[in-house]
């Protein structure tokens, strides 16, 4: 008689939300935490930006209105003074977190802005777009100080390393650029949609089609 084997089912893990934040009337397409995690900022398909008290799960202040289309990406500066947002309206906006008002509307990209990231010293904001370019902006003056940098495809992600010396862009390949000159330093032939530097700035973790590299 053939022996039979018992099949042990995979354990089922039930996901239970810790908090549910209610208030958006459209798709939430971008989320970022403030350093320290006490506040969270979200952007939606109607162009609205909301700041939330994480502990209470409640809205902190009024809806920020500046974009006229989907708020595709969001970032908060390490000094907590600024919010950076990029949208399908081709705009990059820098918001003052104290006054909750627009400091700069940064025009230059000619298609949707897919990615934004502040430098760790909070002095610069990098942006990447469907127009296949990356730019670095001076937060105080609002001027584009590096770029436009022509990348290898639509720029889905952009990140400063911990020392702010370079930026990494993710498109049809990963490209590493000098953050002061915009010169190309390295190309990694890997098509990606997301990336992050390790804490020591020596390696990059990238997410693409069905794999993490």
From TrEMBL:
WD repeat placement: 21-62, 64-105, 106-147
Database matches in InterPro entries: WD40/YVTN_repeat-like_dom_sf (IPR015943), WD40_PAC1 (IPR020472), WD40_repeat_CS (IPR019775), WD40_repeat_dom_sf (IPR036322), WD40_rpt (IPR001680)
UniProt keyword terms in alphabetical order: Repeat, WD repeat
Repeat recorded as keyword: yes
SUPFAM superfamilies according to UniProt: WD40 repeat-like
UniProt protein name: WD40 repeat-like protein
Species name: Hydnomerulius pinastri MD-312
């Amino acid at each position: 008689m053939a022996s039979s084997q018992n099949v042990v089912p995979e354990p089922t893990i039930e996901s239970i939300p810790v908090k549910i934040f209610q208030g958006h009337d459209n798709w939430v397409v971008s989320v970022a935490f403030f350093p320290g995690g006490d506040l969270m900022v979200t952007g939606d398909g109607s162009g609205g930006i909301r700041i939330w008290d994480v502990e209470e799960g409640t809205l902190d202040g009024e809806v920020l209105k500046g974009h006229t289309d989907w708020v595709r990406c969001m970032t908060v500066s390490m000094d907590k003074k600024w919010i950076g947002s990029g949208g399908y309206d081709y705009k990059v906006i820098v918001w003052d977190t104290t006054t909750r008002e627009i400091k700069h509307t940064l025009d230059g990209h000619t298609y949707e802005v897919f990615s934004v990231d502040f430098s760790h010293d909070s002095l610069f904001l990098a942006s990447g777009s469907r127009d296949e370019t990356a730019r670095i902006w001076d937060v105080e003056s609002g001027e584009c100080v590096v770029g436009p940098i022509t990348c290898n495809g639509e720029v889905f992600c952009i990140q400063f390393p911990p020392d702010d010396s370079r930026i990494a862009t993710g498109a049809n390949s990963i490209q590493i650029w000098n953050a002061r000159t915009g010169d190309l330093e390295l190309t990694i032939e890997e098509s990606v949609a997301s990336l992050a530097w390790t804490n020591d700035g020596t390696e990059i973790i990238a997410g693409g089609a069905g794999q993490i590299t």
